[in-house]
From TrEMBL, chain A:
Domain of life: Eukaryota
The protein, known as: 50S ribosomal protein L19
Disordered, as annotated region: 60-87
SUPFAM superfamilies assigned: Translation proteins SH3-like domain (SSF50104)
One GO CC term, this protein: ribosome
Compositional bias (Acidic residues): 68-87
Matching InterPro entries: Ribosomal_bL19, Ribosomal_bL19_sf, Translation_prot_SH3-like_sf
Automatic annotation (TrEMBL), chain B:
Lineage, broadest ranks: Eukaryota, Viridiplantae, Streptophyta, Embryophyta, Tracheophyta
Protein name as annotated: Large ribosomal subunit protein uL3c
PANTHER family reported for this sequence: 50S RIBOSOMAL PROTEIN L3, LARGE RIBOSOMAL SUBUNIT PROTEIN UL3C
UniProt record, GO biological process: translation
Keywords carried by this UniProt record: Ribonucleoprotein, Ribosomal protein, RNA-binding, rRNA-binding
Spans annotated as Disordered: 195-225
């Protein structure tokens, strides 16, 4: 019991690597490789028990050497019966841990874009703090112009927000000199130096495109 | 032409051999190169005659790698401009599985494998081919035809940082998105007919030829048919960033296919710079 609960992860990965167990040398080497790629779960450990035992005996050394990070969570070692067994495993595990450096967490391919976006947002946050913006907010945006002289100031109502990682954009609508203007600002752009939420208007929509048909006084704001 | 006539029997043998040599992962076989000069070497063993083929098809400008398209995002350059990029990831693979030389195979190429799979997914011949070099079981095998294959050994791991660096121009090829059976307007950018004024032809082809002379439709006339889902190469894309921890590359612009698509990334072949000469 304890064997399966101690190493459910390492042994769960074995069936996925190959159903023909340790027959060819290629399979064993592929198992140690596959441990890097396969995500580790704890579900369904009971179902794999018979396979688990066989695999463990033959690939014990190889499986254990890889799983250094998981050694901290022996968790459900309820087995009083196999207390001696666990001691043996832990001592051999301790030896394996000293030999290998701590492993990096496995990154799945479909997580890479999320991680890159998070990193980019963290970098952008160092330039300015981006507040939480919702449609209906009246915001003031200070943006750097091309000639890098003065910062241009835009004050208007947020009529839509499009969230997509580091390219999250907001659409501002305001009236200037008798002309209605809508501008799309990428919120995490380094050219935007400051975003400040001045006030908020209660709206019952996520996209306020109806303002285009309304009177200009609903999107006219005085800049101080 | 006389040379070709002499070697006609051997030529058909070589053509047959080339057709069978098609790679498993290549969606469309590379067009059969017609050798301009063919030298027939008679073999004492009497089996299939060896062909030493000169002046053949195109070479790669350098060794390439295989990769997986992950998606697109925006990259904010430190200078402040914003670049649309494709994020390209790497599965376990990019291992040299065979090095072909003109002595053994008649041409110089490096065969690279990509994407680890369970060994039950491969046939025994495929497994044996990979076991010969001690490589992991891999699904895709592609060849990169080079001018010289020195410095490549079977079993060698190709390192992305050594082959490419930021700012390099690359050619990316992969299977494009399939569009199904499409008409002339989408497939060949034809113009629509008028929508009003009593017109009865809106999206049709229009005329497909002249009159009694020539009295037929030319071969290759652009007509509706299946569009997309073929091997497409996008040239001269620049590498914006190489992320070593995540094992990912950011390439400016778009690449063929949807996220998850197999890509083949090679150094860009630029006329005047690095087009390999025969």
């Amino acid at each position: 019991m304890a064997s399966s609960s101690l190493l459910p992860h390492s042994l769960l990965s074995l069936p996925t690597a190959s159903s023909r167990f340790p027959k060819s040398s290629l399979t064993i080497s592929s198992i140690s490789f596959s441990l890097n790629q396969v995500s580790i779960t704890r579900t369904g450990s009971v179902a794999f028990q018979p396979l688990v035992r066989r695999g463990r005996e033959s690939t014990f050394g190889i499986a254990r050497a890889g799983e250094t990070g998981e050694e901290e969570t022996p968790a459900e070692t309820g087995g009083d019966e196999s207390a001696t067994e666990t001691l043996e495993e832990e001592s051999s595990v301790a030896v394996a841990v000293e030999e290998k450096p701590p492993k990096k967490p496995i990154v799945k391919l479909n997580e890479i874009i999320g991680i890159l976006n998070k990193k980019a947002i963290e970098e952008a946050e160092t330039i300015k703090v981006v507040p939480d913006i919702k449609p209906g907010d009246i915001v003031e945006i200070k943006k750097e112009k091309a000639n890098r002289r003065r910062l241009a100031l835009y004050k208007g109502i947020v009529i839509s927000k499009s969230s997509s990682g580091v390219h999250t954009t907001i659409r501002i609508r305001y009236m200037t000199s008798g002309t209605a203007v809508e501008i799309v600002f990428p919120v995490y752009s380094p050219k935007i130096k400051e975003i400040k939420v001045v006030s908020h208007r209660d709206v019952r929509r996520a996209k306020l495109y109806y303002l285009r048909e309304k009177l200009p006084r609903f999107y006219t704001f005085k800049k101080k | 032409m006389g040379v070709v006539a002499i070697a006609s029997q051997g030529l058909s043998l070589a053509l047959g051999a080339r057709l069978l040599q098609r790679n498993r992962s290549n969606p469309t076989p590379t067009p059969l190169p017609l050798p301009s000069v063919v030298r027939l070497c008679s073999s004492r063993k009497g089996s299939a005659r060896r062909m030493e083929v000169l002046a053949m098809a195109s070479f790669e400008a350098g060794i390439g790698v295989m990769a997986t398209k992950l998606g697109m995002m925006t990259y904010i350059h430190p200078e402040g401009n914003v670049i649309p990029v494709t994020v390209v990831g790497f599965r376990e693979g990019n291992v040299v599985t065979q090095v072909k030389t003109s002595a053994t195979d008649g041409y110089d190429a490096v065969q690279v494998g990509y994407r680890r799979v369970r060994d039950i997914k491969l046939t025994k011949p495929e497994l044996g081919h990979l076991q010969k070099v001690g490589a992991i079981p891999m699904r895709h095998l592609q060849e990169f035809r080079l001018q010289s294959v020195d410095g490549f050994e079977p079993g060698q791991l190709l390192d992305i940082e050594e082959i490419f660096k930021e700012g390099d121009l690359v050619d990316v090829s992969g299977n494009s998105i399939g569009k199904g059976f499409q008409g002339g307007i989408k497939r060949h950018n034809f113009a629509r007919g008028p929508m009003t004024h009593g017109s009865k032809s809106h999206r049709q082809l229009g005329s497909i030829g002249a009159g009694t002379t020539p009295g037929r439709v030319y071969k290759g006339k652009k007509m509706p048919g299946r569009m997309g889902g073929v091997k497409t190469k996008i040239r001269k894309l620049s590498i914006v960033k190489i992320d070593t921890d995540l094992r990912a590359i950011l390439i400016k612009g778009a690449v063929p296919g949807k996220p998850g698509n197999l890509l083949r990334i090679t150094p860009a072949k630029i006329v005047g710079k690095n087009i390999p000469k025969n």
